[in-house]
Write a structure and sequence with these properties.
Blueprint: E1 3-5, E2 11-13, H1 20-27, H2 29-34, E3 35-40, E4 43-46, H3 51-54, E5 60-61, E6 63-66, H4 70-91, E7 96-97, E8 102-103, E9 106-112, H5 122-135, E10 140-145, H6 146-155, H7 159-167, E11 174-180, E12 183-186, E13 200-210, E14 219-228, H8 231-246, H9 249-255, E15 259-260, E16 271-272, H10 274-293, E17 297-298, E18 304-306, H11 307-313, H12 315-319, E19 327-328, H13 333-344, H14 350-362, H15 376-388, E20 392-395, H16 400-408, E21 419-428, E22 444-454, H17 459-476, E23 482-488, H18 500-517, E24 521-525, E25 534-540, E26 546-555, H19 557-561, E27 566-567, E28 573-574, E29 577-582, H20 587-598, E30 611-615, H21 621-633, E31 638-641, H22 647-656, E32 661-665, H23 667-672, E33 674-679, E34 683-689, H24 690-702, E35 722-724
Parallel strand pairs: 1-5, 17-21, 23-24, 30-31, 30-32
Antiparallel strand pairs: 1-2, 3-4, 3-6, 7-9, 8-9, 8-35, 9-14, 10-11, 11-12, 13-14, 15-16, 18-20, 19-20, 21-22, 22-29, 23-25, 25-26, 26-29, 27-28, 32-33, 33-34
Helix pairs in contact: 4-5, 6-7, 9-20, 13-15, 17-18
The structure holds one RNA strand of 76 nucleotides.
RNA sequence: GCUGCUGUAGCUCAGUCGGUAGAGCGCGUCCUUGGUAAGGACGAGGUCGUGGGUUCAAGUCCCACCAGCAGCUCCA
């Protein structure tokens, strides 16, 4: 006879086998109707399962999840994925089921299906889903021992599920299934009580995916959809998606001449047009001033460096695949590089080796110590030896090694630490072509980078000051909604360099400072950089979308690799600690994000063109020039619309160009020594003297006032990362 | 990188069955000289992503490459 405790503290005894629905019905029939799942100490389960089966606690802490709880939405969506899979199986022959989890915004299901599904098929599938929902059949859970589970999926001809039970679920002695009518699926659950609870759903898109996310595996068809408890919510979500599309920085960037990516220049290589460059320069100038105030020293470093530098740092071996290939001074360089890779992979037969040797000889190269009869290691050593004698450069993929060399350029005393070296450093990364995305993912990018070298006693203070800097710059552009992701290593992985002890220390330091900072943060294992843990700023824009922008990283490893030292008070050498940090992240990504956040309508201080003078007729030109020069004097970016169009047309065009202030000048304004001010947001503000207008605009600019960013009333677009409900 | 879709004027797009290219916006010139979101007329502008192939004939059909988009995978 289980005792149940509800969140208000009330405890009541129920008969054995009572379910969450029974508990809800005990309160009201209406609550029973809207209860979709149950939360027991954070464990979410079917509302139709006996509570005494779910928990041994006494009393059992029960929280009923209704269609108002966000956790319930995930349950609903996963059930909708089952409904979709059921509909697809009714409409197509030989459907293989893969995975069908929920995402932040909906759900998907991966199908192994010969026949391609296209968006034209959606109405048909949706109609079938609607029919299933109308039948409102229950989702029934049942559990089978392993061998019976294997038998069942094999009887159902579900090969992928069979494979998954064998490999992915090897340690599960029993497996749960959900049945809905003729549809049976291996599933961890939980599910809503019956399909009738799905009130609003929509198929969104179809795309390719791979079994278990591995490109070597079978290609599957992924059908995306979303579902809500309420039609209104679905409508609002779809509007939000439309709004996000409308703000696409690639579209707005073209329309407002902010940047362009020209075929002739190359994939992922961004051209900053004058207007976009203006926004960037303003941000750079702003942060440069702040850095001087905070004790940073400016440095510059070249765009390329010797490959050995990045071999020492670890970047070259670690990220080889996503770097531009090395630049060689000798024509045989490429050959040797390729040769080494083949040897490394133990993939070089005698014929190929003979060809390589002949080609090298043809270029006048002999490798000291290389013998066809020698061991792989001896051959590699000989090739490396030759290579080290050659010019071999890399486009720099990171600024840190260069800054490390600047630190190394003179002996350092503890008295001069911390040393803070800052540079807007341009780096090049050969991102996979499918990853490129406007300014958000490019192959040449400029980081607002800096490296701090300090003693281990100074780390906490420096790290904390850096967090403060990031907060300050985000605030300056009106981004005040963010959380911090503390990215830690995965303890048993070999992806990371350095001593586990140093890692523990670094992770502990970050956790300490973040805990004391009052900032919202969560920990994420396996997300660290290969050399150290990091704190990433996840910033929410006005649509509630999260962007990873600024980052602060703690690094005990590079100082080790480069043998960095300073002389301590004890006159002995000590190893400094490094902090990598970039408040904006990259200028490309940051400006791209700002374009979407502001929908290209930048606040006055960032607007490429702040003021446009609109003459009422052609006779006003000289007066307009007179006013313009006063605004230019005051540092405003201005222009005059000299076309002989009428004022309505000039205003419309300025409005569409998102000019913050339009100054209309006609005979009346000239006679009174002023201008008619039109605000992009408020509209006509009427006549002002030139001095009054200047004062108003100067104030708004210098305070970096942010206007016209309407926060979405929607809960926000979630991330599209997988959330669960699958085994 | 993989799978699918797309590539026509500066921009957004139309172009039927293979028969040598069209609109709107923008731009230029002229007319208009006006008080807060489109005044009018005329005009310039295209080797149809690139290279091959099929054909009497290719923007249109086929192949390869380049680039973009969506998704997957990746992100120091």
């Amino acid at each position: 006879m289980p005792n149940v405790q509800l969140p208000d503290g009330a405890v009541k005894e129920y008969p054995a086998g009572a379910t969450a629905i029974d508990v809800a019905r005990d309160i009201s029939e209406r609550l029973a109707q809207s209860t979709v799942a149950v939360d027991i100490n954070g464990f979410i389960a079917d509302a139709t399962r006996p509570l005494d089966e779910l928990s041994d606690a006494d009393p059992i802490p029960v929280k009923l999840l209704t269609n108002r709880d966000s956790e319930a939405l995930g349950v609903l969506r996963h059930s909708c994925a089952h409904v979709m899979a059921r509909a697809v199986m009714r409409l197509y022959e030989g459907v293989g089921l893969a995975f069908g989890p929920t995402t932040g915004n909906g759900f998907y299901y991966d199908f192994d299906l010969e026949q391609p599904i296209s968006e034209e098929d959606f109405p048909r599938i949706e109609a079938e889903m609607q029919a299933i929902i109308k039948d409102a059949e229950p989702f029934e859970r049942f559990v089978l021992p392993r061998d019976e589970a294997v038998q069942l999926v094999s009887d159902l001809d579900q090969e992928l599920k069979t494979e998954h039970i064998a490999n992915g679920l090897a340690d599960h002695p029993t497996l749960s299934f959900y049945r809905q009518g003729e549809f049976v699926d291996l599933c961890r659950g939980p599910h809503i009580p019956d399909a009738g609870r799905i009130k609003a759903f929509k198929l969104i898109s179809v795309a390719g995916s791979y079994w278990k996310g591995d490109a070597k595996n079978k290609q599957l068809q992924r059908l995306y959809g979303t579902a809500f408890f309420d039609k209104k919510d679905l409508k609002r979500y779809l509007e939000q998606v439309e709004e996000a599309k409308r703000r696409d920085h690639r579209v707005l960037g073209k329309q407002h001449h902010l940047f362009s990516i020209a075929n002739e220049v190359g994939q992922g290589l961004c051209l900053w047009l004058p207007k976009g460059a203006t926004v960037r320069v303003l941000l750079e100038d702003f942060i440069k001033k702040e850095l001087l105030r905070r004790g940073y020293d400016p440095v510059y470093s070249p765009h390329i460096g010797r490959a050995e530098l990045y071999e020492t740092s670890g970047h070259f071996p670690y990220y080889r695949d996503s770097q531009f290939p090395p630049l060689f001074g000798h024509p045989a360089g490429q050959l040797v590089d390729y040769w080494k890779q083949r040897l490394d992979a133990d993939d070089l037969n005698e014929d190929t080796e003979r060809d390589f040797l002949a080609a090298a000889a043809d270029m006048g190269v002999e490798f000291e110590g290389y013998s066809a009869a020698g061991s792989r290691e001896e051959k590699l050593a000989a090739l490396r030896k030759w290579e080290r004698q050659q010019e071999r450069y890399l486009l720099k993929p990171m600024n840190c090694p260069h800054h490390v060399e600047i630190y190394q350029s003179q002996p350092r005393s503890y008295r001069e630490l911390p040393v803070r070296l800052a540079e807007f450093g341009t780096v090049y990364r050969h991102e996979q072509s499918g990853e490129l995305n406007g300014m958000l993912r490019v192959r040449g990018l400029t980081q607002d980078d800096a490296h701090l070298f300090c003693t281990s006693e100074q780390v906490e203070q420096e790290f904390s000051d850096t967090l403060d800097l990031v907060k300050f710059v985000l605030q300056s552009v009106g981004l005040d909604d963010y959380r911090i992701q503390l990215s830690l290593r995965e303890p048993d992985s070999d992806k990371y360099v350095g001593d586990p002890g140093l890692w523990d220390r670094a992770e502990g330091t970050l956790r300490n400072v973040l805990s004391g900072s009052g900032l919202e943060f969560n920990e994420c294992e396996g997300e660290a950089a290969f050399y150290g843990p990091k704190a990433d700023f996840m910033v929410r824009d006005c649509l509630g979308r999260e962007w990873q922008l600024g980052t602060v990283q703690l690094d005990y490893n590079l100082p080790e690799r480069f043998n960095l030292e300073y002389v301590g008070a004890d006159n002995a050498p000590h190893r400094p600690v490094m902090i990598h940090r970039a408040p904006f992240g990259s200028m490309e990504r940051f400006v791209g994000m700002l374009i979407e956040h502001f929908a290209a309508a930048f606040p006055l201080w960032l607007a490429p063109e702040q003021v446009r003078l609109l003459g009422l007729n052609d006779d006003m030109l000289s007066y307009a020039q007179e006013i313009e020069s006063k605004f230019k004097q005051a540092g405003f970016r201005t222009s005059i619309d000299t076309r002989s169009a009428n004022i309505k047309k000039k205003i419309r065009d300025a409005q569409l160009d998102l000019i913050p202030y339009m100054l209309v000048v006609g005979p009346k304004d000239r006679d009174q020594g002023g201008v008619s001010v039109r605000d992009r947001i408020e509209g006509d503000l009427g006549f002002m003297t030139t001095e009054a207008a200047l004062k108003k605009l100067t104030e708004e600019r210098d305070h970096r006032t942010i206007r016209q960013v309407v926060k979405s009333n929607f809960e926000g677009l979630g991330s599209d990362t997988e959330e669960g409900h699958e085994y």
